[in-house]
């Protein structure tokens, strides 16, 4: 299993025109993540997506460093991104080619040489995810579940060691959310999953609760989810 380390990582962002010169998005955080399935939970704006994006360099730390399998993400970003795949909340951010087949083939451009060989390999990938019949369809005609499944298939076609998924079921209906959740949790890759789906989080091996830019609970998913539920109960609710 891979090893993800955050060493005294801080992330800040400027606040143009604001009263303070910068805002802290992630407070000083040190973590070592070695479990196969790790859930990141917390309210909107808590910093969980920022933490997830640190793993493959989509967000760079203001201070501290992130290390993946011995590779410093800031210094060896290209090597890290070969090991770490990323799935966005909205698959439209990833589907850039006109057809389903072309989109997967694009993911394979560094692994498979030759257009015909790449197309054949892409068809094999699509068949493995039950998308073979959609190969020649425009990506714009797919349902939300089909688009997310295609985005995941394209990322996994590169055979990453780690998959980071940032709220991948948020835009899906219940049936498709369950389908995508089952797929992600059944992968052999190490999974870092930022999610609002607490049932999905409880199926992971470890959970981290992020609130106001800090990890406030870390451990067994059932316990961390219970802690989150308790935090969500305001005085008005009691």
Automatic annotation (TrEMBL):
Domain ABC transporter: 4-237
Keywords: ATP-binding, Nucleotide-binding, Transport
Source domain of life: Bacteria
InterPro entries assigned to the protein according to its UniProt record, in alphabetical order: AAA+_ATPase, ABC_transporter-like_ATP-bd, ABC_transporter-like_CS, ABC_transpr_CbiO/EcfA_su, ECF_ABC_transporter_ATP-bd, P-loop_NTPase
A GO term from the CC aspect: ATP-binding cassette (ABC) transporter complex
Keyword Transmembrane helix (UniProt): no
Matches recorded under Pfam families: ABC_tran
UniProt GO molecular function: ATP binding; ATP hydrolysis activity; ATPase-coupled transmembrane transporter activity
Keyword Nucleotide-binding among UniProt keywords: yes
Family: Belongs to the ABC transporter superfamily.
This protein's name: ABC transporter ATP-binding protein
